[in-house]
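Thioredoxin family protein
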Amino acid sequence: MATINLTAETFGATVEQNGIVFVDFWAAWCPPCRAFAPVFDKASTEHPDIVFGKVDTEAEQQLAATARITSIPTLMAFRDQILVFSQPGALNSRQFEQLIGAIEQLDMDEVRRNIESEPASRA
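Structure:
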């Protein structure tokens, strides 16, 4: 699957309706964003079972603000509607493939248990 453009209108449904979603927050004027784009696009064709979405932070300023994007590129990964990764900076192909593998291998039952125990640990 090729990358898809995400907007404020499509972002939530995309995350809700797909098992794994990678989101690249970018802007055309950003050199690191332009350098990461081919890595992201290549991964999207090599992993057709994963959704790869791009958010143009210039066109979608409110969505970027809601996602608390302060630096671009920022890469987010959602699995089963849970944000499991968020990090600014461009990755090379090897790093991105390692991240994809790690997200695929996550024990989501353990992730959910950790989320459920967080409020108790803050109290």
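Residues 4-122 form a domain with the Glutaredoxin fold (CATH 3.40.30.10).
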